[in-house]
Amino acid sequence: MDRLSPATLPRLPAGIIKPDYDRAAITTGIVHLGLGAFHRGHQAVYTDALLKHDPRWGILGVSLRSPDTRDALAPQGGLYSVTASDGAGRQRRIIGALTGLAVAPEDPAALLARLADPAIRILSTTVTEKGYSHDPATGALRVDDPDILHDSLNLGHPRSTLAFIVGGLQLRRQRGLQPYTVLACDNLPANGHTLRGLVIAFAGLVDRDLAAWITDNIRFPSTMVDRIVPATTDADRADVGAALGLDDAWPIVTEPFSQWVIEDDFAGARPAWDVSGAQFVRDVAPFELMKLRLLNGAHSTIAYLGYLMGCETVAAAMAEPELAGLVEDMMREEVTPTLPALGGFDVAAYRAALLQRFRNPALKHKTAQIAMDGSQKLPQRLLGTIGDRLARGLPITRLALAVAGWIRYVSGTDEHGQPIALRDPLAAQLRALADEAGPVASRLTPALLSLTSVFGSELPRDPRFELAIETALDDLFQKGTRATVAETRRAAR
Questions:
Q1: Residue pair 386/466 in contact by the 8 Å Cβ criterion
Q2: Which of 194, 215, 229, 448 shows the smallest number of beta carbons within 10 Å?
Q3: What angle, 0 to 180 degrees and rounded to 10, lies between the N-to-C axes of helices 384-391 and 397-410?
């Protein structure tokens, strides 16, 4: 089968949406760090939709580690397909927003030089929580991170996300160029504010004057991004190839729903993403908190408990009546009361839409994929909600079970004694603590809660928190996940 490429675009069947602009006329205005599935299924789609009207915003997509995405898409001229499916129908479109592809470790100096191009107005990031070299419990820079230690002494040959951002800004400052806007598109709490603090902290290790210049001149808008984009499978590739009549080495398969809320605070020109359906607002925080706690918090709950119940995908987990009911009850009874007012936004309708999205049979979103990097995700997805409820004297029964599910997951073996492939930046530390404590809730709970990089220092000191986690974890060990979910759901009503 021939490959998807600019030359083969005219051969696509009717019904496939193709770029409606001249790609040769597109110039690069955005450098994006983190060329993963989410960026290509979300921000790149919004950008693609406006290039007909404003061709200044092509994207140089940069992989910070692996060359796999570049190697897959380069023979396709940067083209790839996005299939949005909800089980009732499918829409397929070809995205042409990527004007270039780079792998940062292959030539860091070339990437820094590109960031000094005056045409670049935005540096955006989607590198997941672990890519920011920070302590997720506090938001502080991890100055002992090996990449940070290296980059603070070798800014001309950076390895980390923060060093590429700062290195590019240093060159622009030296050359008297207008600074670019740094746009975080990850599930970090107050992602723009958080990234700003990390960038300034790292710059302070390199050059205090540079740190002061960044403080005074650079804009870091916060964003809320929302679209479920599972990892692409070989079955997806086969299905897409059959539909296109062309081979797409790395297609995106996602859901129809997509949301992007952006703080309107840019250093200079910005794309009119609102034309593509994004929303520019003064304050992203209420939307972000709603999404982190309702969608992401529920997702992690489904992932850990669903995985332990033997459910490979989110849809399979949501087909378990007791687990689906527990998640719905948690969202309504324990999470929603902690959210700020959203000015008429219908939170109940949003919850209902989330449950429908989770049940989408067309999305093969693996529980093991969502379970990755839990040590980085728990603080913003679950622990913040728990802290708010405890401060108000409210119960945390369902939320505690979700956290206990994570502890049970990182203990290393499932309920059939099979090893769990733990993928987490703290994997070695987590396994060492779990192995020493053994599968005993009264020992394993305090061992894991001692991780201040995950739990901070306040929550573990609250006896209500530790008792709730230990009780739920003991039930998981003694009764199994399925029975514990059912009993917890009944007890919490």
A1: no
A2: 215
A3: 140
Which helix or strand (DSSP H or E) is residue 406 part of? helix 397-410
CA atoms within 13 A on the CB side of 51: 27
Residue whose pair of structure tokens reads 């800014």 in the numeric block: 155
* 70 touches 103 (CB < 8 A): yes
Amino acid at 109: A
